[in-house]
Amino acid sequence: MSRILTYISRGILLNAKPLRCVVSHQQLFSTTPHESSHTDQPAEFYDIIIAGGGMVGTTLACSLGKNPRLADRKILLLEAASGFKQPAIGQSSYSNRVSAISKGTHRLMKTIGAWPHIEASRVKPVLKMQVWDACSDALITFNYDDMSENISWIVENDVLLGSVYRQLDGVDTVKIRYSSKVEECHLIRDGAAASTVRLANGERLSCELLIGADGYNSLVRKTMAVDNFTLSYNQMGVVATLKLGPGTANNVTAWQRFLPTGPIALLPLSDDTSSLVWSTDVAEAKRLLQLDEQSFVAAVNEAFNKIYPRKGIIDEVTKNITSLISSSTGQRLEPAPVVESVVEKSRAAFPLGLGHTSTYVGHGVCLVGDAAHRVHPLAGQGVNLGFGDVQCLTDTLAEANYSGLGLNNLSQLVRYEQERLKHNVPVLLTTHGLQQLYTTDFAPIVGLRSVGLTITNALPPLKKFLMNYAMS
Ligand SMILES: Cc1cc2nc3c(=O)[nH]c(=O)nc-3n(C[C@H](O)[C@H](O)[C@H](O)COP(=O)(O)OP(=O)(O)OC[C@H]3O[C@@H](n4cnc5c(N)ncnc54)[C@H](O)[C@@H]3O)c2cc1C
What we know:
Elements: H1 2-15, H2 25-28, E1 44-51, H3 55-65, E2 75-78, E3 98-101, H4 103-111, H5 115-120, E4 124-126, E5 128-133, E6 139-143, E7 152-156, H6 157-168, E8 174-177, E9 182-186, E10 195-199, E11 204-212, H7 219-224, E12 228-244, E13 253-259, E14 262-270, E15 273-281, H8 282-290, H9 293-305, H10 312-324, E16 339-342, E17 348-357, E18 361-362, E19 365-367, E20 373-374, H11 382-402, H12 410-438, H13 443-458, H14 460-470
Parallel strand pairs: 1-2, 1-11, 2-8, 5-13, 11-19
Antiparallel strand pairs: 3-7, 4-7, 5-6, 9-10, 10-11, 12-15, 12-16, 12-17, 13-14, 14-15, 17-20, 18-19
Helix pairs in contact: 1-12, 3-6, 3-11, 10-13, 11-12
This protein binds flavin-adenine dinucleotide.
């Protein structure tokens, strides 16, 4: 943890250097943007090129393309995959890749006009949440008074992406190209007049600003040659679509139990369907994928209900705290739903890791989403951080363009970076801290975390603050 803190604070200090702000727009564009020093062939020019058309890159293209202050700018989105097929809602079963999205993301989707499409497709509001410790009686529950507000929404990634694509229809300033893997980037600082990318087919394209939205293995970030902290949790997130047993007609609760091997979460998709995200060590994840369907369902139900060895003293202390500062809120909710079956072929597993780059921006280049930061899914924050980047970068570039500063004015880009560091770093550290704190059954640690969770649960203002911060 201290290594991460040192690393990240070093990043913030480096980023605060005023030196980077003194490079003027004229210096960056000493020759015309259409020229490139890497070859005699002029490259096709765009104002902005976004490398990577995942959820974050596509939403960024839409958000920039729809901003009136950027209406005079040409944007190109390059995606390596061969295309995107709109999900056939109604005929198809739920996708196994879903995201819990925050209020900030909800606002962004509304701003770009994608929310009505999401609502018309499939989305499930979460009204309650229970997080509990398998090694003690400690738990925390979240909900707004009288369920008056949603805590978050569970959306299939393809539904979100498809809804954003629909909004891109008719945005003339944005062009999308599939099967367009960026193989090489040249940044302005390499002596070029503009940032240039070379695609797998040999084609070259240049731009005033290159944005890396190309995921945690980002080529754009590698080309920037900045420090990038990475850590593998040696865990995988096993996902699946699950059918629930009778008695769960009002499925509006997100459940997460911290097992000594990692958290298991059940996220509501419909009245009788939920999505599983089970983080566990690699060998166990592989075993879970191999199990026949019945054994897999039994393993999931066991994980939510198994009684682990307890230390009586810890349960005694948490019971006393609860009775001392008990409140009417924070009571244990009804038991987690019983899983009846797993949807055929819905099981898959993804590696889990932590990543953070010391620098999000450079001359003619910047990073968004997992290309800049990667977190464990236990707090459902990964793509929400990316969407926060989208909102902030859109505002920054719109302001810069409107005031005639240009799209790669470094002082403006540094403002984007500093704004996002303030939000992303605390979330990253908290998520990593929770991951470390809960991946052990060592009694003193179990005792400390149980007391902390119990106190937090018994203090509604503190809980509300945490809920608002995490899902804002
Ligand atoms: C099991 C699991 C559960 C999760 N649950 C949640 C959740 O509930 N809430 C939440 O907020 N987050 C969640 N996350 C995190 C979330 O999925 C990621 O943060 C998010 O997908 C990152 O989006 P992105 O667009 O930045 O990157 P990516 O999804 O990695 O997209 C990158 C895109 O760039 C393309 N690309 C890559 N290289 C190139 C190249 N050279 N040229 C052109 N294109 C390229 C790729 O094809 C891809 O389409 C979860 C993650 C996992 C693993």
